[in-house]
Amino acid sequence: MNPVIEQQVKDFRELVQKIKSYEEALGVMYWDLRTGAPKKGMEARSEVIGVLSTEMFKLSTSNEMGEYVAALSEPEAYAQLDEMNQKIVQECKKEYEKSKKIPAKMYQEYVVLTTQAENVWEEAREADDFEMFKPYLEKVVAYNQQFIDLWGAKETRYDTLLDMYEPGLTVAKLDEVFGEVRARTVPLVAAIAASQDKPDMSCLEQKFDIDKQREISLFLLEQMGYDFDAGRLDVSVHPFATGLNPGDVRITTRYDEKDLPNSLFSSLHEGGHALYEQNISKDLIGTPLCTGTSMGIHESQSRFWENMIGRSRLFWNRYYKDVQRIFPGQLDVSADAFYRAMNRSEASFIRTESDELTYNLHIIIRYEIEKMLFNEGLSVADLPAVWNAKYEEYLGITPPSDSLGVLQDVHWGGGGFGYFPSYSLGNMYAAQMMHTMRQEMPELDSYIEQGRLAPIKEWLTDKVYQYGKSQTPGEIIQRITGEELNPTYLIEYLENKFKEVYNLQ
Ligand code: ZN
Description:
Blueprint: H1 3-34, H2 42-60, H3 63-73, H4 75-78, H5 83-100, H6 104-127, H7 130-151, H8 157-165, H9 171-194, H10 210-224, E1 233-235, E2 241-245, E3 248-253, H11 260-278, H12 295-309, H13 313-326, H14 335-342, H15 359-375, H16 383-395, H17 421-440, H18 444-450, H19 454-463, H20 473-481, H21 488-501
Parallel strand pairs: 1-3
Antiparallel strand pairs: 2-3
Bound molecules: zinc ion.
């Protein structure tokens, strides 16, 4: 390598490492804030977070960064880089260009606005008052419209927002896949609503000691291969996983005495995110590639462990006896009855409390509405009416209040337009990967039923985890399954599962 370029790479990597260090420090601070930092320190801590975030933003948009990415992107220099450095340059260039297009003043105004909007949202939801939230939401939408103008609209305006969370994904593709999921989920949800053979929920309607809930969470996390020497389990209001580096990936769950499945599945879900981050190749540490490749692929890993493994009959054939052991005398129903109770499906208003089947309809509704906002001129004032009409059309229920409707999620207040589809993409990717996994590992079902989960984790490490962000979501799904995103696998998985749970023909 030309010595000038060699020096540039070295300096560039140092800058990248510095940015990553700020990011890790901020990660620890956020984790600390959400897992029990003393109330009186919060204000000062928020200030510190503000200062460090600004420093980090300045570094990633600095002239220095601009010069490195420009110099190293020159064909002659670029050709001399190894593949990993090429990818790091690409990634930094993308971030740099995106950030540089937004004037600093405008960005700061937007940060202040979204912080306010999130606070007002909380009050508005509490008061069930959409009018209170409306002016803030209108501004957040207007800012995002301006961002789209600055970044440049892709195929459609909403495509630009989607691309931030799922690089390469388009409205055209989502319309197609969500259309298929919707067309086959809506009649299944209706058939389940009409079914006379519903799971008996009484086994779950009792108090489960919180220390013991923690015990079963720890046990199952260990079974799935979560490395407690590279992580820990804590409590927070909203469960999350945070990957500081592959050797330190922390997760949280929440406990409610009257809701055992809540802590159980939150732990498995966050555990799935954590397995991904713990098993990224060590070579990627200190680079922007040392993270999940997209929201959708990240969510595929959490949902794979939570739903496809954790809500399966095979899994409970093996682990029900451990739940019985930890809660002696409390569960005298059969493993089958327990499994069915864990998989009750019912149309409901709140996305985060919905079941595996109806969940996707909650997401599709949000996707269609976001698209209307950015591509079709829907006004914020009309959101509640459109929201309620779609809930009636797809789920057969009309929210009795905006708190149980359009005001339920924080995402829009924070400007997270384009984020919601990730959740259902995760379900689709997960089902598609599992289809391939079963072909390549014919013993898969017996492994699950025996509690031999290590080969599953190894397969995912080999196919997904190790790559971090060095491959795009499209490249990953194509390489693993030999085809692009295909919703058929999820649809068939859900139909087979829920027809069986509800004894439908
Ligand atoms: Zn998640």
